[in-house]
């Protein structure tokens, strides 16, 4: 289940399939898919392609033997629980320093009541700050609320990871906050979290 959180609070709750019909999100351009220039070329290339024997041997050497491992299905199993957040009244220069200190690229934004109201990324901050030698020299006296994206798509802890990945691709977002029944932020899933879960144990069973 997905929700929309903005300055007025929760404005939507429902399935992923209905998100595209929400006016606030319909203006968000989806990520452009990479399309092949020639279907015939792709078919011929796939037919003639033969993996190099050395590459196959190297891959087999890295593959671990099968063991009894549990599958991953839901957001709470891969989300980051220690979430770095920003306040909507934080100065953008201070927000940039938090990003640099914690080496993050986006962060959920909370209001004074500690409720989710938006999300902000490095790209958003860079629209209002000037940087020289790694230091902010001008921030145009802007606050995080002035540059954050709102409303923001959030998900419940038991949301299928496949659906979260789909929302990221279709709406061009880099992360999805995870919110419990009490509207409290309990986690955050980034593209990195999903990629990390693909290459580490236990294996993901979300693609079958």
Question: How would you describe what is shown here?
Answer:
- There is one protein chain.
- The protein is an alpha+beta fold.
- The protein has a single domain (2-27, 71-199), classed as CBS-domain (Roll), CATH 3.10.580.
- The chain is 31% helix and 22% strand.
- The chain has helices at 23-26, 39-48, 53-62, 92-102, 122-126, 144-147, 161-171, 191-199, and strands spanning 2-6, 9-14, 86-87, 106-110, 116-121, 130-132, 135-138, 152-155, 175-179, 185-190.
- A hairpin with a 2-residue loop joins strand 6 (130-132) and strand 7 (135-138).
Largest sheet: 3 strands, antiparallel
Question: How much helix is in the residues?
Answer: 25-40%
Gyration radius over CA: 20 Å
Instruction: List the uncertain runs.
Output: 26-47
The CATH topology is CBS-domain
Strand content: 15-25%
CATH class categorisation: Alpha Beta
Q: What is the strand arrangement across the widest sheet?
A: 2-1-8
Within CATH, the superfamily carries the name: CBS-domain
The number of helices is 8
Rounded mean pLDDT score: 78
Short description:
By secondary structure, the chain is α+β, with helices and mostly antiparallel strands. It has eight helices and ten strands.
């Amino acid at each position: 289940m997905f929700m929309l959180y903005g300055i007025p609070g929760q404005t939507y709750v429902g399935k992923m399939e209905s998100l595209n019909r929400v006016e606030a999100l319909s203006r968000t351009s989806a990520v452009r898919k990479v399309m092949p220039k020639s279907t015939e070329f792709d078919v011929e290339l796939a037919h003639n392609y033969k993996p190099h024997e050395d590459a196959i041997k190297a891959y087999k050497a890295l593959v671990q033997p099968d063991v009894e491992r549990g599958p991953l299905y839901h957001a709470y199993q891969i989300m980051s629980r220690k979430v770095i957040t920003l306040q909507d009244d934080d100065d953008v220069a201070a927000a940039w320093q938090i990003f640099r200190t914690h080496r993050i690229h986006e962060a959920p934004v909370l209001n004074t009541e500690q409720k989710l109201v938006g999300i902000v990324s490095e790209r958003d901050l860079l629209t209002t700050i000037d940087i020289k030698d790694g230091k902010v020299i001008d921030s145009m006296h802007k606050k995080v609320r002035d540059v954050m994206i709102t409303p923001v798509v959030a998900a419940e802890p038991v949301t299928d990871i496949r659906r979260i990945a789909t929302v990221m691709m279709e709406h061009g977002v880099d992360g999805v906050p995870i919110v419990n029944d009490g509207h409290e932020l309990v986690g955050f899933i980034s593209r990195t979290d999903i990629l990390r879960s693909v290459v580490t144990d236990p294996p993901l069973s979300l693609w079958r």
